[in-house]
Amino acid sequence: MGSFWSSLLAIAQRSTYIIHLDKSLMPNVFSDHHHWHSSTIDSIKAVVPSSVDRFHSATKLVYSYYSVFHGFSAVLSKDEVETLKKLPGFVSAYKDTTVCSRNSKRSCPRARLAVYEFSFVEGSFTSDLIAAMDQAVADGVDAISICQGYGFIPLYEDAISIASFGAMMKGVLVSDSAGNRGNSVGTVVNGS
């Protein structure tokens, strides 16, 4: 019975993590980054014992990033993240966080806009925002405007700031305004 409870605890501790990789260390055997990311997920499945059965979610790749951020997001256990840290090319891991987004009115009626949705009924997550930014840069946009708020995170640990820097390095302006939750003190927040 003890192994049942430890298995249940391991499953409950699964979260989405954003994994930052050094693209220069991608092995030549992979044709693209997506195959490298998928293979990395498969390799940790083989190393870390799985307590997942047909009723629970397994380790899975959520997004593969290649434009503003080199890496991927995946549903992982803490043990799987620790295993990833030992692999070549690993830079850092960030636990996915909820970000707050708000609708805004457009004031330039003749502007050509591309809109990338990252806020869904289930919530708005960092991994979704980075995927939208990644696709926008791949599509050749000149600017990205983000209106969302999240708490203070040191820049070197903030996946959104790192992705914004990656977009800037590709010549894309990233404007990130504060999320607004009302007219009280401390309701306008942006950590970057």
Automatic annotation (TrEMBL):
InterPro entries: Peptidase_S8/S53_dom_sf, S8pro/Inhibitor_I9, S8pro/Inhibitor_I9_sf, SBT
One Pfam family, short name: Inhibitor_I9
A GO MF label: serine-type endopeptidase activity
Keyword annotations of the record: Signal
Domain called Inhibitor I9: residue spans: 16-99
Domain of life: Eukaryota
Gene Ontology biological process terms, A to Z: proteolysis
Transmembrane segments: none
Protein family (similarity comment): Belongs to the peptidase S8 family.
Protein name: Inhibitor I9 domain-containing protein
